[in-house]
Structure formats: C-alpha cells, structure tokens
Amino acid sequence: MKGIQFVVDDAGKKKAVLIDLAEWGEVWEDFYDVLVARSREDEPTVDWEVLKAEMAAEESKTG
Q: Per-residue pLDDT tens for 11-30?
C-alpha cells in the first residue's frame, strides 16, 4: 500500500508500521483518537454540568 511500510524482525514478523502522514495524516488522526478513547474507557466520568461549573469557578479565580 502506498505510503505504508512495515518494519519486520529477522523472522519476517511485523513489528511496527511507518505511515506517510502527508498521505494518511487524517486517517492516522482518527486511528489515534480511537486509541486514546479506548485507553481511557475505564476512567471515571464527570458530568458535563459539573465540569462546566468547575471550569467557570477556576476561571473566576484567575481572571
């Protein structure tokens, strides 16, 4: 596939991939976003209204 190169070990097993970001940058960003989301799926969530109130309170302290 153009713009994609696999790095292999001595046995020919794929170990890594090189991605041409000029060609595949948008796809990489989507892929990366999924990885980040999956890595955080077990983290506790915060209600949006609570977060907005905390941010507003913090802003009023600094600003």
A: 999 999 999 999 999 999 99
